[in-house]
Write a structure and sequence with these properties.
By secondary structure, this protein is of the alpha+beta class. Helices cover 29% and strands 23% of the residues. The radius of gyration is 23 Å and the shape is rod-shaped. It is found in: Secreted.
Length: 75
């Protein structure tokens, strides 16, 4: 009888818990939205300390922190 009561209590508590947002968590989204050896992040526009290096897709830029950019000789 006690186990039946415990099961009922657990079911009631589970029905009261709000649903979680579906989809990947922030860490997984960040891994899949990285570019250029995981040093850059795909965004619509780059921040002040970042610079555009390559395209991620048609609409997003690969924004990389300036300290991770390759050194270009001759400029």
């Amino acid at each position: 009888m006690k186990s039946l009561l415990l099961v009922l209590v657990v079911l009631v508590l589970l029905s009261c818990v709000p649903p979680v947002r579906s989809g990947p968590n922030a860490y997984i989204r960040r891994v899949f939205s990285t570019c250029w050896r995981t040093k850059g992040v795909c965004k619509k526009s780059c921040g002040k300390s970042e610079e555009y290096h390559i395209l991620c897709d048609i609409t997003r830029l690969c924004c990389i922190n300036k300290k991770y950019l390759p050194v270009q000789i001759g400029k």
